[in-house]
Amino acid sequence: MSEESDSLRTSPSAASLSENELPPAPRPPGYVCSLTEDLVTKAREELQEKPEWRLRDVQALRDMVRKDFPNLRTSLDDAFLLRFLRARKFDYDRALQLLINYHSCRRSWPEVFHNLRPSALKEVLASGFLTVLPHTDPRGCPILCIRPDRWIPSNYPITENIRVIYLTLEKLIQSEETQVNGIVILADYKGVSLSKASHFGPFIAKKVIGILQDGFPIRIKAVHVVNEPRIFKGIFAIIKPFLKEKIANRFFLHGSDLNSLHTNLPKSILPKEYGGTAGELDTAAWNAVLLASEEDFIGKN
Predict the structure, then answer these.
(1) Assigned CATH topology for domain 37-108
(2) Any residues with CB less than 8 A from the CB of 207 and at least 6 apart, and which?
(3) Using CA atoms, how far apart are residues 218 and 256, in angstroms rounded to an integer?
(4) Residue 268 · residue 278 · CB < 8 Å
(5) Which residues, in sequence order, are bridge partners of residue 130?
(6) Which intervals carry biased composition (Polar residues) (predicted)?
(7) Numbered ranges of CATH 1.10.8.20 in the chain
(8) Splitting the chain (301 residues) into consecutive groups of 10 residues, what average pLDDT does each group show?
(9) Given the DSSP bridges, would you call strands 183-188 and 130-132 parallel, antiparallel or unpaired?
(10) I need a labelling partner for 94 at 20 to 30 A (CA). Which of 60, 109, 229, 284 fits?
């Protein structure tokens, strides 16, 4: 931990850590760490997370919310606030801004966030548009596999796809392991036509990227694009202006060269559709996980 990081934690602007200055409000449900020793070490090295400071850091963020945003309708549970601290490497001010953005995004896009629950998205799930592969990458990142060719625009609007992506992110981020390791996205653009791509215009692009970069507590470690047609250059041209350099550098365009993909994602963790040895792509398992999680999303809309 650098001196700068420690000073951030103890500075008055970050919120007082003194016991006699804590507000008298009852403490939300307690937190029990589920990380392995290796992940505790990784969180310390990559996220500046000190186990001995963890609950005091959470309390500091909680104090800031109560003081600066007393009317914000948000959970103040240890585990929930910890997601935002980890996503911003325990920088209190940046974690607070991420939390504010998280709720602002949800309020500002009702087409996506109203009635956001698995049971409302059975048709999208059944299409095979999205799944999470059963194996993580070598760094422990879950792999979110998106297949736009499975979407038929006449069946439902593009916002339904965004809804199911968001639900999946919410489910994934419940895992502390994912909070520390981050996720990988595998996007298969096989068969995506110009007419279908036209639905993903600048307005949608800006909204989605705004959520992924600044409005959701998740670390995107890589985006692997395969089977992209020539028109993808046009799609990427729409996306790129909204991408921060750090995220833009994590995009890898493989085309139909699966050997290139395998240098990043080993065959052993990929389904045979992507040259792997982990069996056929199965969307049913992840659909079942989401549909069994209905209770997790009640009251969040």
Answers:
(1) Helicase, Ruva Protein; domain 3 (1.10.8)
(2) 109, 162
(3) 28
(4) yes
(5) 146
(6) 8-19
(7) 37-108
(8) 42 41 54 95 98 97 97 96 98 98 95 95 97 97 97 95 97 98 97 84 89 96 94 80 92 94 97 97 96 87 61
(9) unpaired
(10) 109
